[in-house]
Amino acid sequence: MSLSLSRGKQLDVGHHGIAQDDLPPMEQGTLDPRDWFKPTDSPAQPDASANPPPGLRPIELEIGSGKGTFLAQHALLYPEVDFLGIEWAKAFWRYAADRARRRRFDNVRLLRCDADMFIRHYVPDSVFQQVHIYFPDPWPKKRHHKRRLVQADFLRQLHRVMIPAETNPAASAPGPAGGSSASPTVQVGEQVSTSPRIHIATDHADYFEWMQEHATQVTDLFDRLPFESPKSAGEGELVGTNFERKYRREGRIFQGMILRKRP
Length: 263
Ligand SMILES: C[S@@+](CC[C@H](N)C(=O)[O-])C[C@H]1O[C@@H](n2cnc3c(N)ncnc32)[C@H](O)[C@@H]1O
Hints:
Blueprint: H1 3-6, E1 17-18, E2 59-63, H2 69-77, E3 82-86, H3 90-102, E4 108-111, H4 115-121, E5 130-134, H5 152-161, E6 197-202, H6 205-216, E7 222-226, H7 242-248, E8 255-261
S-adenosylmethionine (SAM) is lined by residues 63-66, 86-89, 92, 114-116, 134-137, 149, 241-244.
């Protein structure tokens, strides 16, 4: 673990962190990540209609959560939504899970593993309401491009694990992570849109071009929309993650897109 992240403190992921070793063998079949949100040390909600039990609550996925800033912001803004972050780097995973534990976010879990492997081999169909991919590693060398996370085949997998668009009562309504026109101020507990969408942002021009090319290969599955900053983004920010805040000072250009699952 990186001491620069923990600053010498012992990090404790508690039940907010799920390690790769905690996953059952792949041969056992799919695993529903909504089960990870079942309360462990707090009693079940007496009024299920006020706060639906795990498995009935909307769940959103963030791939490459880093230090978990986006998850922390959104866990507070949308307490009625569950958020799963997948982070490969152990130091970041530990930091983000410890952060969620300390802040007692019952609606956040951090899984440490390769997101592609987990989604492809474990996640059943029709689980996630929204998917967030902010500043994925660009793999700039041509011979490494095949390692890029955002590519047509992976987008097809994400399409499979997202809820069906036809269950959506207001496909064009703004959701918790995007859309600012309907309501300029953030309301905790605000109604969540069920419009299933992938939100992607990058600071890498070549990767953005690649993303656009790959998005055109899946136009049968997704409509491409302009990026809409989540309500957690600060003044002048695209998303407001740690990565963006760090590199914004260098004057980097940030770009994004939204892929909305087609009915
Ligand atoms: C450039 S960082 C951005 C982190 C965060 N989203 C932010 O904006 O601050 C990319 C993150 O994605 C993680 N990552 C890269 N490939 C991954 C994969 N296949 N599965 C899970 N996490 C991955 C990296 O470990 C890293 O923390």
